[in-house]
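As promised in the previous annual report, we have extended the structural survey to additional targets. Below is the entry for ZAD domain-containing protein.
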Amino acid sequence: MGSLDKGVLTGFICRLCSEMHRVVLHIYGEEGIRLCISEKINRYLSINVSRSDPLPKTICKNCLDRLENQHRLVMRIEQAAHMLKGQRRARVRRGSYVSNCDSEDGPPDLTNN
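The corresponding structure token record, generated without further manual editing, is:
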């Protein structure tokens, strides 16, 4: 299959898992740009990728699937938070919102659940 150096030069090593793969997607290729791969990596993972760094610019299908799942999860969480904040604001405007923090009873007992 060739040396590790040859894999890096020919683009068969995934930037995320560093494993060799026959099929990879170029992060800055047409499809990689369309899928915003570099932006997603930079946002969701504790690494940064750029066109000028010396590391591989390819990602394998498994890592791409995991990155897309992370993106969908974060989008869903952000949408839910936005919706819940809007519902809370609407209840506050109507005067029907009562915060648990306003009661003097103290925190709920969660040990009996």
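Residues 26 and 32 are 6 Å apart (CA to CA). The longest helix spans residues 61-94. These points will be discussed at the next consortium meeting with the crystallography subgroup.
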